[in-house]
Each structure stands twice: as C-alpha cells, then as structure tokens.
Write a structure and sequence with these properties.
The complex is a heterodimer of chains A (612) and B (667). In chain A, 32% of the residues lie in helices and 21% in strands. By secondary structure, chain A is of the alpha+beta class. By secondary structure, chain B is α+β, with helices and mostly antiparallel strands. In chain B, a hairpin with a 5-residue loop joins strand 34 and strand 35. In chain B, helix 10 crosses helix 12. The longest helix of chain B is centred in the first third of the chain and has 31 residues. Chain B is globular. The model of chain B has no long low-confidence stretch (mean pLDDT 90). The chains are: A alpha+beta (612), B alpha+beta (667). At the A-B interface, helix 2, helix 8, helix 9, helix 10 and helix 12 of A face helix 3, helix 4 and helix 12 of B.
C-alpha cells in the first residue's frame, strides 16, 4: 500500500473520502471532542477517584461497517483508552447493533470482556446520522463502589469474581433517551455510596450528550463519508508512524522480565511477567510465554490490559506525540497464553489491581526494548501506584474514608536521554491531580507530617532518576489501613544505558505506644510481607510511613558533569558520600548550613573517576 | 487619557484627547524599561492627561525566562517540596512524551532552588489549633543560612495559615529582625488567604518576585512622569485588565504579573457596548500565537486562577485567555504522514517570515498570504517593510512533499485559519456556549487577514474588524474601571445558621476595601461553591448586596451549576468555599465615534491566487476611503496602515457607524 505521505491528491481522496485538508481538520476535531468530555467531567465529578485521580477516559468509535475504528482516545488514563477500542465493540456486538436507537446508553463492566476491573463502568452512546449508525461516543469511568466484599473494592485479597463485585453484562441504562428502571435498580441494589454514584453517572451521561452533539454537528457539516474517511485516516496515520519508527531500529529478539512480590494468599509465590519481543522490519511480536500462572487473589489482569500496556510502551518509545488511536497496535502482534497472571480466567482468576500487573508488564516490555533502541531507552519509574486507603469513625460517630490520598501515590519517574526525572509524579501509565494537604486534613483525621525526597535513592546516571518520596502521616483517630503494595522486594526503577537502579521502597507503622513495625519491604535480606494481617489497625497518635521506590538512572553516572552533581548535593538529592560513591565526584563543605560554600575537589574527583 | 502597554519588543503608547486616538511605538528597553514609556508619553503630550494607565508583560517575561531575583521560600518543616510537586498532573497532550518535565520542578527550572526552600518547625491543624508551636530558635537558625546566601526576598507560606495567620506574622517579624527591614517579604495569609497550599504558595512566591521587579520601577516611572509634567493618576492594569492605583498594586503585585492581553478583551467589550452587542469572541492574532477570550452578556469571562506556565498557578482574578500556536509568523512544515502543519513554532520577529528578507528560510503564514496576493509587498506595516515574494516562494518550494506549490500555500493559509477556528470553538464550548450566538471581534496585525476565511468553520454570527485593529489591545487600557477586590476562604455548608458567618466575611472585606479605596463605588459580591462531595469549585456565583438569604444563595448556585454542567442536583447540599468582593470605582473611558472619511474612491481590481482552484478576481480598497454604510461583496481586500482585511467569496462586508467592518456570509 502506498504510504500516506506519497499519496496523490486523487489517491488520497479515493482512499479517505475527503481531501488532506479536511482529514487534518477532522483528526484534530476528534481529539477536541474527547478532551471536552473529560475536562467537564473532571471538574463536576463527586468521587475522589474521578475528581482527583482522573480515573476515566473518553473515546470516539466509528461504525461497525467501518470495522470500529477508534480515531481519538483522551489523554487521561491510558490504561483505559487502550482497552476501550475493543471493549466498545465487544459490548455493542453482544448487546446487538440492530437494537440500538438514538438516545441509548449501553453499559458494561466485565473485565474478561472489557479489560480493567469491575469498578470501571463503560458507557456507550450510539450516534446516528439520518437513520444510519454513524459511530459512538464513549466514556469509561471508575465508580466508587461496585459491590463485592470490600467497600470501594480497594483490596487485593478478593479470591474470585463473586467476592470481587457486581458484573454487568452489556445492557441499556437509557433507551431512546429514557432511563431503564431495571438497570438503575440492579446497580443501586448492589452498590455502596449510591449518593456518590448517582450524580457521577448522571454527569457522565451529560458528557455523552455533549460528545454526541459535537460529533453529530461534525457529520452534519462535513458529511458522513468524510468523517468516516477521516477516522480511517487517523488510525492509518498512527499505524504508519509506528511501523516507520520500528523500521528505523535494527532487527532483533529481546527478552524482558519483571516480578510482582506476592499475592494476598501468601508470600510463597512470586508472579513473573516474561516477554519476548521480536522485531523484524516494520513489525514486532510480543510473546508473553513464560509468564506465571494466574494469582490466587485479585491482582490479575486480562489480555486487553496486556494489549494496552504493550501499546503504551511502544507509544512512549516510537510515537510519543499526540493521541492514542486503535491504529497504534496494527504493527504489533501479541501472543498471550491463557490462565496467566496477565490473562486470568473466571471465576478464580479475580481481577482488581490490574494496574499493578500493568506496571510489571510495562517494566518487562521496556526492559526488553531497552536492548534494541540504544540511547532512546527509558529507565523504570517507581513501578507501582502504591495506593493506600484508610477508613474509620470519628469521635462523634461519623464515618470517614481516605482513598489514594496519603500513601505512596506520588513517586518518581525514570531518567532518559532528555534529562533527570521528576520525583513527584504518578506513574508512566497514570496522570492525575495530587490532592492538597490542606484539603485532606479538612476532611480526614490525619496530619501530613512530611513529604519529601530521600537523598541517595534516585537511580544514579548521567541523567538520574527521580528520588524516593517519603511521606509521614499522623492519624488522630482509630484507623484501618489497606495497602496495595506489590513491588518492594527488588528495585522496580531499573537503570538503562549504563544507569543505576533506584532504591527499593517500604512501609512502616509507629504505633501509639511508639513501637515501630516494618510493615512492608526488605529488612536484612528478609521480606516483610504486608498481607500477614487482613488490614492494619492503628490507634490515635499512630504514624504511618511510606517510602516509594526510586526511579532508575540513564547513562553512566561517572560521566555526569560534576557541576550537576554539586547542585544535587546542595539541594539535598545526593549526600557528599553518595556523590563520591555513586558519581565519583568529591564535594567539600557543609551543604546544609552553608549551601553556597560547597565546592568540587577536582583532584579528588579525578582520582575517584579514574580508579573505578 | 494615556495608556501604555510595555511588551518585550515594543512599548505602545496610546493617547485619547477629545475623542481623537493617537499612537506611539517605541522600542522597549530591558535595561531601563521606564525610559521608552516616558519617551512615548512625552511625544503624545502628558501635561493635561488626567490618567496614565500602565500594562506590562515584564513580570511574565521575567518568570518565563527565569530572569528572577534570588529569593527564599519558608514553609512548614517537611513540606518544602510543595513547589516541586505542583498539582502533579502532566498536560494531556504530553502524556507519553519522554521529553516532558514539570517546567518549574527541580528536574527542570525551579523558581526557588531547593536549598533556598527551608522548613520551619511549627504546625497548625485544619481547625486552626496549634499542633506544634513556632520554634523561634530553629527559625532563626534557618534564617542565618539565608543571610549567608544573600537572598533579596522571602516568601512565607505555612500549612493551614489561611485559617490563622499567627505563625506567618511572627515569622515575618523574625525575618525582618534577622535579614533587615528593607527585604521584600510576602506572607500567604495576606497575599492570598485561600485553602490548598500549592496555589497559595506559588502566588506568594510570585508576589515577592513582583515586589522586587516592580517597586523600584514604579517609583522611578512616577518620578520621571511628574518631571515630564504629568499631574494625574498613575494606574497599573492587572491580569483582568482592571486598574489599580500604583501604590495599591505594589501591595499585592502578583495581580499585575500578566497584564496586556486582557486589555484586548476589555477593548472588545467596550466596542461591543457601543455596538449593542454583548456576546463576543475576541481574537487577537499576533506573530506567534492567537489569544482567544470571551465576552458574554457584556462581561468578559474572568477566572479565579490562571497559569503562567503549565500548572504554575496564580490565585488572581484574570480574564480567561486561551492561546493557540498559530499566528502570522507560524512556521509551515510537513508531518511524517504528509500533513501540512502550521505552528506551533514561529519565526517570530527575528528572523521573521521568509519574505522579510532577514535570512529566515522557513515558510510562514505571512509568506502564504503574500503569495496569495492578500498582502501588498510594498504596503506592509504602513510601508515600513518591503516583502519579497520570491523568498516566500523559495521557502514553500523547499518543503519536502509531493503536493504542488499552490496547494502547499493554500493549505497553509486555510489550516492556520482552521486551527484558530478550532480554538475559538473550543473556548466557546468550554463555557457551554454555542458559536452561532457570538460575534467574532478580530484584531492584531494578522487577524483581519486570516479569520474571515474561517467564519464558516465556526458558525459564528459575523466577524467584526474594529477600528485600529493593530493597536486595539492598548486601547483597552482606556476602557476599564478601577477595581479593588478581596477574597477569603471558609468551608461553610450553606445552611440557614451559616448566614451570619458569611455576612460577617463579606462585611469585613467591604469595610476594608472602602478604607483602602478612600471612596465608594459599586460593590459586587460573588462566591465559589461546590456540591457536597466535589473538590472543584463552581466559581463566581453572583450575589446581591445586603443581608444574606441562604435559600437564595443555594438557588443561585444550582442555576450557575446547571448552566455550566447541564445537570441540577437540588437534593445535594451546597458548600461555600471562597467569598469575593469587588469595589468598582468608575474611571474615565474611551468613546468610539464615527470616523471621518478622507475621500471616496472605487476599488481597484487585483488577482488572488491559491485560495481556490482558480485565481479569483477581487477588489482592493483603502479602509479610510470607505464611508459608513458602504456594502461590498467578497472577494475583497481592504487595506489600512497596520492591517489587511481579507473578505472571502460568498461574504459581504458592511462599514458600520463606528467605522467597524462587519463581515457576514452572503444571503
């Protein structure tokens, strides 16, 4: 097939039903539509998971007759957008294309059909032009609760689909604009926090209305053929960019592996993700053979999550700009055996903390590709979302809940050829709003005592990783803590291109009597298994400490300019000892009390660097 | 009346005397920014001017280029990295871009390096109670370090200080004792007493920078203007283009960090008033970018915060202005898939478009307009600059694409127009509006040339090209009131028993504002609220003056919410978050009047190329020669000193009673 850029004017119009100019305009328009839908939902949502964590996404899908292209996915939570191309199709096909009417909203949430987990409810709105089905606008959004044995679902201990939560096969939430009573009742008879879910769901439907209106206006103006052609164009262009970038690197076969510490059934089993990436010409195959069997509690993921994560890794390395589309994965084949930790099966392969598995998959794929892309390799991030949640009752009897606010949620990226990494991010696969300390403290009986980087924890490198973030919290009333930390045994922030690994993380509790308990992490070569109790209970005055893992470094640290090492010493990211040990740079002076008085000892530095 | 807009390249001075508008353009001076201001003002005549209104982008430029004085940041021990953290999030468009860093983070270009951010042992809780008393000895130890580092200013933001300023005030005393009385110091509980520590901290840091940048400058300017004979009031424009007496501005100079672009919105609003049109999209098309803002029902959209860079937040009232990287100097390139791409990079003014002949070799939108025949090679910028079509042609020929030359040129022009049209649609939609209800006011040097061609893409009602489109923004400084304002945070459920507390907050703020202003004016109250369970506020719920009626507040909130989000949740309780008072003191303003027509002349036939498949026969006019009431059909090109208006086929243009050009789809 002729490459898009080489198409003649007539050839382009023949292939895409519109001229180049219109295709460009419409590609941008699709992106705007999904971003509008997301921007308005963010600021109107009720659940902290939506309003702060941006745990939702929007897409546009073309009609079945055009093989369901997805030309635009919002740049919010990429974990969703990658699965949505398939989940919209799976949902609508099962519901029945022929049953669709204008004003319908179809929902579904089964991870084995849709990817991600049951809390992520998919909302699909068909868009008609005249009487023809012209496409869909869609949102997937994390609902604060979807039933199951644990409030809000945030637990990795659930053992099967029955404990996990309510599964909704594809069904109508609205038919021809009218709410379907049965469906609303089914949901609200089975979930908690209905006062949060109801306005959130109504707000999501308001965004579908907006998306539908924008897409319908676009079709009205440009015609259905041009819009459909532009959808194909957006996907083809993404596929072509990916395969062109793949062609530019040498062929090869590379293996990458990474590991999750345990599940909540015991610390007797680790779960390994192994990928073999084979690159030939403009195509690649990613084979998950050799990956561990599915876990016994709900830390599993499904093949659509695996597909998404591979897509994210490839996008980071080969086509970093712009929106994700369903064309991005056309050049990549996947081999995924059944019943592994990334392809779990119901009813026992329960799926909740799928994103932790996605983090491990991302590490494995990035490690494999690092062998093929040379200096374009990117070092590992802190490797986990490290989500903490807590709940309790105030002295006046009112309940409180804190979800994903004051644990290890904020952590480091890895370094790359463009420079040092930020220490305070979410992860490579998530983007969201960090909650203000003052907001948390006005709603939850907690005091954030400190939140800062730990010196000498960033993976050393010519460009270093981000540092481990230490957060100490003081709990003013009795609390139950739920942890979702699965990567504290070994450093997830791997170094690349000669860079060093970041530090490993950990969790500690100092109870109200002053006794310190090492809850999670390594101590003298022994793993502290955090799920030895179902949850951690603390009394008033107890302290909780999180130290996230450090990000990996890029390039040889002994090549780093001494001036940049000096600046890190002055700013407290690296100690004087660390500068000598990790970077071969000798610094003199007192960085704490006389930060501008410190200096590089040039001779000693030369000695250190030549005797490595 | 005088207005001055100090930009990075030029300082524009406008004078209005007896309804007559005069303009002076003087090159800006980084070393002595007051000099060109005084020079331009003197040229236009200062003696009988009653007001001198000043806007400048000096503050913004200093922040963006990090040409900043050395200051320290003091906060609660354990929290000095709030300035590295921001609100965490990445720009959506940079989701998987490995070159992105938080622009103000420690891995990129921090405003205050970490070693000058020091923790002070103290802690207040959310209810204002003291958890850890202020440890003065520890604080003095930290101040010793700062003294050793010779900082020029100190920003103080302690956790929960918006509830009680006691520790911040004492700490400021310690700073003065240890580092001297003349040091610039701001404390967050006075600068911006709002909840959420990051925005309050960054606002306070910017405030200290602006004190250091503007204090000496304002005194210098005031003195030189007086020496030159000026005896009126000197006012500074803020981010919402409202005016503050200069001494008031220096109390909270974060408000004036970014003045200038908002003035264009004010100018549009004023013109809209004169035309009886209250719903406007204001488009200022410059060399590098296009600024888009809205006027709805006669008022600009004002935000309660804005960002100097991605996530670098300032808690200041500011006109919502959205920027898209498409302007006259935007560079045209070809993407990997063969798309013609316009911007975001720009040739700026140096080297400028290829046709300027200043060694620029990359094609720009201006080059396209020249090759199309829209721009006159001899009459550009009032004849000051000759344009070379051959250089423009070479630049387009050098693009690596199989597209024929004429398509490259035509596409580039239309894509620039379409990009701006997308942003316009975007801004209107974000505010829940429908473009069909709006008039597009188009100004800036490249606006009238580019935007009528995009009218049909936006479904807007019509395009209006105002008089003096090249200097239209600066006129906004003479279109605005003096505004004193204050804002306070208190998380209060809107229940009948809260009325007294809320009323107390408003009355206290109003009393102080009247004291500060020393005169009375119109009082406007508003509050930002949210539905119970939300974390983002719905801002600017307008309130009447007088006793607080909670039921009325709640109803007004629900109305505002429904307009914005399309849902109404009457069963969810409403929480008040921030309460705001504005005291408006009317100031003298410009009046637009009917222009005098110099001569009446017929159009001249010219040929326009590359816009359609075949060349177009068009008519060319001089704007000064078009009397009120003239009605013409496109294609037409209307020239004036600093701008060219391009009316496309299928459009008509009418000269309105204030000399404005009104462009509409024919029929």
């Amino acid at each position: 097939m002729t490459a898009i850029r080489d198409l003649s004017t007539a050839g382009f119009e023949q292939r895409y039903g519109c001229d180049r100019f219109t295709a460009t305009v419409l590609t941008n328009r699709f992106g705007y539509v999904v971003e509008h839908m997301c921007a308005r939902l963010l600021t109107s949502a009720f659940s902290p998971i939506l309003r702060d964590f941006y745990d939702f996404a929007a897409t546009i899908t073309g009609p079945p007759s055009a093989a369901w292209p997805t030309p635009a996915m919002s740049a919010s939570i990429v974990l969703f957008t990658g699965t949505m191309a398939d989940s919209v199709r799976n949902t609508v096909e099962e519901y029945g294309v022929e049953r669709l009417e204008p004003g319908d909203v179809i929902i579904a949430n089964d991870p084995y059909r849709n990817g991600t987990h049951v809390n992520d409810l998919l909302f699909v709105r068909p868009v008609f032009h005249d009487v023809e089905l012209a496409g869909f606008v869609n949102m997937k959004a994390h609902q604060l609760d979807m039933g199951g044995v644990v409030p809000a679902g945030f637990s990795i201990a659930k053992k099967n689909v029955y404990e996990n939560g309510l599964v909704l096969s594809p069904r109508a939430l609205y038919r021809a604009g009218e709410p379907v009573h049965d469906t609303w009742s089914l949901i609200f008879d089975n979930v908690r926090f209905g006062e949060v879910l109801a306005p959130d769901m109504l707000s999501i439907v308001a965004e579908l209305d907006l998306g539908e209106r924008l897409l319908a206006e676009t079709i009205e103006r440009y015609g259905a053929a041009a819009v459909q052609g532009a959808m194909a164009y957006a996907c083809d262009a993404a596929a072509e960019r990916m395969s062109t970038a793949l062609e530019a690197i040498p062929d090869g076969t590379w293996v990458g592996e990474d590991v999750i510490d345990c599940d909540a059934a015991g610390d007797d089993e680790e779960y390994r993700v192994r990928v073999t990436v084979t690159k030939r010409g403009g195509r690649a195959e990613v084979d998950f053979s050799g990956t561990s069997r599915q876990a016994r509690t709900c830390i599993n993921a499904t093949p659509l999550d695996a597909k998404t994560t591979v897509g994210i890794a490839f996008k980071y390395l080969f086509d970093p700009q712009g929106w994700f589309t369903s064309g991005a994965m056309r050049a990549v084949d996947l081999v995924i055996p059944e019943g592994t930790v990334v392809s779990a099966l119901p009813p026992d392969g329960a799926v909740f903390a799928y994103w932790e598995q996605s983090q491990v998959m991302l590490s494995a794929v990035l490690r494999a590709l690092a062998q093929g892309v040379g200096e374009a390799a990117i070092a590992g991030d802190r490797g986990s979302a490290d989500i903490h949640s807590a709940n309790g009752v105030r002295p006046d009897g009112s309940p409180w809940i804190s979800a994903a606010q004051v644990g290890g949620e904020i952590g480091a990226y890895g370094g790359n050829r463009h420079g040092d990494a930020d220490s305070q991010m979410l992860s490579y696969q998530a983007n969201g709003i960090g909650v203000a300390v003052e907001s948390v403290e006005s709603e939850v009986p907690v005091v954030v005592l400190r939140h800062e980087p730990v010196p000498d924890t960033a993976g050393a490198g010519f460009n270093r990783g981000g540092a481990s973030m230490l957060r100490d919290t003081l709990w003013l009333s009795p609390a139950q803590h739920h942890l979702m930390s699965l990567r504290y045994k070994r450093a997830p922030g791997f170094g690349v291109h000669g860079g060093g690994d970041g530090s490993t993380g950990g969790i500690w509790i100092t109870d109200e009597t002053g006794e310190e308990i090492h809850v999670a992490g390594m101590e003298d070569g022994v793993y502290r298994y955090p799920y030895r109790v179902p949850f951690w209970e603390t009394g008033p005055g107890a302290r909780l400490r999180y130290a996230t893992a450090g990000g990996g470094g890029w390039g040889d640290p002994f090549e780093r300019e001494p001036e940049r090492v000096l600046r890190d010493v002055r700013d407290g990211y690296v100690t004087i000892e660390g500068a000598a040990r990790d970077y071969g740079v000798a610094v003199t002076g007192d960085p704490e009390r006389d930060p501008e008085g410190i200096a590089i000892d040039t001779e000693a530095t030369e000695r250190l660097r030549s005797t490595r | 009346m005088l207005g001055v807009d100090v930009g990075g390249t030029f300082t524009d001075v406008v004078s209005v005397r007896d309804g007559r508008i005069e303009v002076a353009k003087v090159p800006s001076s980084a070393a002595d920014p007051a000099a060109p201001v005084v020079e331009g003002a003197t040229r236009l005549g200062l003696e009988d001017a009653s007001v001198f209104n000043h806007a400048s982008t000096m503050g913004l430029n200093a922040v963006i280029t990090r040409a900043l004085p050395k200051i320290a940041f003091l906060t609660t021990e354990g929290h000095r990295d709030i300035l590295d953290r921001g609100r965490i999030w990445r720009p959506p468009a940079r989701q998987s871009d490995t070159s992105w860093r938080r622009p103000f983070g420690d891995a990129a270009r921090p405003l205050v390096p970490r070693y000058l951010r020091r923790g002070i042992r103290e802690r207040l809780l959310a209810d204002g109670s003291v958890h850890v008393p202020l440890d003065e000895e520890q604080a003095r130890g930290e101040l010793e370090v700062l003294k050793r580092c010779n900082v020029e200013g100190v920003a103080i933001c302690l956790l929960n200080a918006y509830v009680d300023p006691v520790h911040e005030r004492r700490l400021r005393e310690l700073v003065r004792e240890e580092l001297g009385d003349d040091l610039a110091v701001s404390i967050s509980s006075e600068t911006s007493p709002l909840a959420k520590e990051y925005a309050r901290a960054s606002t306070t840091v910017i405030d200290v920078f602006m004190k250091l940048i503007f204090t000496g400058y304002a005194q210098e300017l005031g003195e030189r203007l007086r020496e030159a004979g000026f005896g009126g009031e000197l006012n500074f424009a803020d981010c919402a283009a409202t005016l503050l007496p200069w001494d008031e501005a220096l109390e909270q100079p974060f408000r004036i960090v970014f003045a200038g672009p908002a003035a264009g919105t004010m100018s549009s609003q004023r013109l809209g008033e004169a035309l009886g049109d209250g719903n406007l999209v204001c488009c200022d098309v410059g060399g590098t970018s296009t600024d888009v803002s809205l006027v709805v029902d006669g008022a600009p959209f004002v935000e309660n915060t804005f960002e100097l860079e991605h996530d670098l937040i300032i808690n200041a009232l500011s006109t919502e202005i959205s920027s898209v990287g498409a302007g006259g100097g935007s560079i045209v390139s070809i993407s990997a898939s063969g798309d013609v791409v316009v911007g975001p990079s720009s040739a700026g003014s140096d080297p400028g478009p290829a046709c300027y002949g200043r060694s620029g070799t990359l094609p720009t939108v201006t080059d396209a307009a020249l090759l199309m025949g829209i721009l006159d090679p001899d009459g550009f910028a009032g004849g000051a600059l000759k344009l070379d079509p051959e250089l423009a042609r070479k630049a387009f020929a050098s693009l690596d694409t199989p597209l024929p030359l004429e398509q490259r040129i035509g596409f580039a022009f239309r894509i620039a127009a379409a990009n701006i049209a997308e942003e316009v649609t975007n801004v209107v939609l974000r505010r829940g509006g429908d473009p069909r209800d709006f008039t597009l006011v188009v100004y800036g040097a490249a606006g009238p040339m580019l935007l009528p061609a995009a009218l049909h893409l936006m479904h807007a009602r019509r395009v209006v090209v105002p008089p003096h489109p090249g200097n239209f923004s600066a006129l906004g400084l003479l279109s605005t009131d003096l505004v004193y304002y204050d804002v306070r945070s208190a998380y209060v459920p809107l229940l009948p028993e809260s009325a007294a507390q809320i009323e107390g907050v408003f009355e206290e703020m109003e009393r102080r504002l009247r004291e500060r202003a020393g005169k009375d004016g119109e009082v406007r109250r508003s509050f930002d609220g949210r539905l119970f369970g939300q974390s983002w506020e719905t801002p600017f719920v307008q309130l009447p003056a007088g006793p607080i009626d909670i039921a009325d507040l709640v109803e007004r909130f629900h109305e505002t919410y429904e307009r914005r989000y399309g849902n109404r949740f009457p069963y969810i309780p409403v929480q008040g978050v921030s309460y705001r008072v504005e005291l408006r003191v009317p100031s003298e303003k410009i009046e637009f009047t009917s222009p005098a027509v110099e001569s009446d002349s017929a159009g001249r036939a010219i040929e326009l190329r590359h816009f359609a498949d075949d060349p177009l026969e068009a008519a060319e006019y001089e704007r000064v020669a078009l009397p009120v009431g003239t009605r013409l059909s496109g294609p037409a090109v209307i020239r004036e000193g600093l701008a060219t208006t391009f009316v496309v086929p299928g459009q008509t243009v009418t000269v309105g009673h204030l000399g404005e050009l009104v462009i509409e789809a024919a029929g």
